Amino acid sequence: MMKRIIFILISVIALASCRSDMQGNDALLDRGIKVFRYDRLQYEATAMNSIAAVQRMSLDCPQATRILIEDVLMLGKVDDPNINERMCAYYTDSVLFRLMLDAEEKFDDMRPLEEALTEGFKKLKEEVPSIPIPSIYSQISALNQSIVVGDSLLGFSIDKYMGEDYPLYKKYYYAYQRRSMKPERILPDCFTFYLMSQYPFGWEKGHRTLFDVIMHQGKINWVVRKILGMKSNAEMLGYTKEETEWCKKNEKALWNWMISKKHLDSTDPMIIRAYTHPDPNIILKGELIPPVVGIWIGMQLTEKFMKQHPDISVEALLECEDFRHLTLE
User: Fold this and answer.
1) Measured on CA atoms in the order 212, 214, 220, 223, is the torsion positive or negative?
2) Neighbours of 36 (CB within 10 A)
3) Adjacency order of strands within the sheet including 135-139
4) CB distance 125 to 29 below 8 Å
5) Model's pTM, two decimal places?
6) How far apart are CA 195 and CA 138, in angstroms?
7) Own/partner pairs for 163-169, CB < 8 Å, 24+ apart?
8) Comparing C-alpha atoms, which of 220, 172, 207, 192 is closest to residue 322?
9) Number of H helices, E strands in the chain
């Protein structure tokens, strides 16, 4: 009983901060980013069968709740009759409930992540002064979207980052999917998807080729790597030592092969997917090419571009869309 009272007290205190911390502003950096534990409201609503907690989710954190119900879980409209009961019933599935318990235990302490988010957004703000700082929250998405971005909001799903050896993942996911489902990927994923929301890819006519796509994704991943202080493009993409060595050894051969096959100018969705999807399915010289190798190529080209133009700011890079003169030859 005492644990229940303490948990509810913590939830109420967190809820009191929801009204302010769920409003993105630059002042968040001054006092340090705090991750709002929306997942704990979800836990209280489910584990304790608290309709009051569900109502508070809707009343005090309406945008996060709308995104969860309508876009992540796709249970209907947030103002549908009985939507609260429907959401509670959804989370009472025994497998999902076990996942929720494990996630709450694994992510009990958010302080290291909060410090890293604060430092990363401070560096991003230095590079891109005009960028707004979002409020950040954690949630349980029922193994749906890893990252969600709304108006001044950035949410990450702790149930999607339990570690690649988490038993439930092995039952439902391929190995190539599990490799990115670990806690250390939360930080780069948050920044990558947030920047993509701020600088969306333009699908204008004449700007839809594989080259356009890998340069857009490549420059954003390169910027994230820079602000997070990662040593290499391979580290940013989570490559193994073997994959990193393969890329170094075969960079020019791969580039020339892409040119010879006319892949860089292709707008075929299947070709674009082959270079940007984590499932490695391209074979060169009898070997499988590392996953998302197109994004790695885009990062390599971005790095070359920035060395050629040392006076260009990161903000100008993110706004730039013309990279046609670049080559790895």
Assistant:
1) negative
2) 25
3) 36-37, 135-139, 153-157, 147-150
4) yes
5) 0.89
6) 18
7) 163/106, 166/102, 168/95, 168/98, 168/99
8) 207
9) 17, 6
